[in-house]
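The instructor's notes for this session suggest beginning with a concrete chain rather than abstract definitions. Hand out the sequence below and ask the class to guess, before any prediction is shown, which regions might be ordered.
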Amino acid sequence: MKRKSWVIAAAAAVAITALAGCTASGAEGGSDDGPIKVGVVLPLTGPYAILGGPGSAAMELMAEQINSEGGIDGRQIELTFKDDTTDVTQSVTEYNQLAASGEYDVLVSSSFVSASAAISESATAAQIPTLSLGPVSAYGDGSNEWIFVVPATAEIYGQAMVEYFTAIGVEKLAIGYTGGDVFGTGGSESTVQYADEAGLEIVLNEPFDQAATDFTPLITKALDSGADAFLVWGAGPAPGIITGQFAAQGAGSGVQLYMTGAQASTLYSIPVGEAGEGVILSSNLAVAGADIPAGSLKTQIDDFAALWAASDSAADYPYPPQFAFEGAAAIQLIKAAIEAAGSTDHAAVRDALEGLDILTTIGRKAYSPTDHVGLTTADLAIVEIQDGAFVATEYSIERFADLPN
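After discussion, reveal the predicted structure:
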């Protein structure tokens, strides 16, 4: 068994032990008066704090906005944040403590994918509706009836990238991915699957250590593989380091560097500087907000971006990063589900989530009993870094014409 799989399995065992005393009463939820309590576990420190920091700030901003407008059915949203320190076992522990307290109407699990993947059995035992800010592919089919994914999963991103590669004529693809993280391994697997179906040749599919600092051997393999494109699946500091080293090694090679939505943030684009110019990424629609055509979706994106610009977070991120828009969408989903349920009864909120079809800051979310992601490749953008900004490619601009409003 691979080490990361072992960690997730061990964390899940801790979860079952910790929640062994929970009963069906957990599905009842809180009272229908007083604040609506939302418990949130995020990586606020550690390597993936670049995901959790913007996510938590966005959730606070969206909750404050809703509260200022009267809340949810007259009730204020109250957020409690717990830091999982980018650690799977800690994330499960924090989730279990929130669930076991009996105080929370909805829970939100970590944007660290491996951590969110590990709370599956906890959520089932606790019977509390949970929104996962980690794009856990295993939750996509609704087999865990209590967990709903907010971002697009690796399968959707992988399919979107292959659709783009096919459209622009890429024939040979090299992949580098974090071997110790569900996001990296899942991204690699999904890309290979869709590439095989499209007739795109994978000439390199190489794992890397996300804690490493020298990626020249990986880059050398990619450049020597005959690839037209080099796609990196990873989060945290490693992709930024790869970008700088690729710019030095790959200059003039003709191989295009690609990243994923995990790098759709100024915490990636600013540190990499000139090395990031021309890098192409997949992202959620909101990252390309400036290029979204006028309509309800653009209004939502622009309204949240204005809230963000007036907040302290704008000092670090002049424009909201991908993870911020996803945090804001989580609060929108919670509001819509509780309003549809007419209460905070856990089972009623779960049922309402499963029937939601609403426009959010990241596009139209349409959950169903067999789709707990509610997004497709049409809800993603392909963007290029130009003068430090994320600019929609012509490929995506053409597709934006078909966006729902």
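Then share the key points. Residues 171 and 200 are 5 Å apart (CA to CA). The two ends are 46 Å apart (CA to CA).
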